[in-house]
Predict the 3D structure of the following.
Amino acid sequence: HANVQPIRWVYELFLKSRGAYKLAAATGGQKHVCEVTLKHLGIFEDFDAIVTANDVLRGKPDPEVFLKAAKLIDVD
């Protein structure tokens, strides 16, 4: 995972937003990959909720992963 690099503009927006808003990660990827990646980037603990393909019944393109993440951080 040493080659994992964040998308620069997304990472910069994230850095500006953390602490100011509740943050959730929602991905169609597997839980272990998501956790390892976020830990490698040093930002795992900054998320209030993390929802992956392992946490939903219907994967992308179904919006379930995003809706569940939003609910976990109290966003309609």
Q: What stands out?
A: The chain has a mean pLDDT of 93. Strands lie at 24-26, 49-51. The radius of gyration is 12 Å. The chain is about 40% helix and 10% strand.
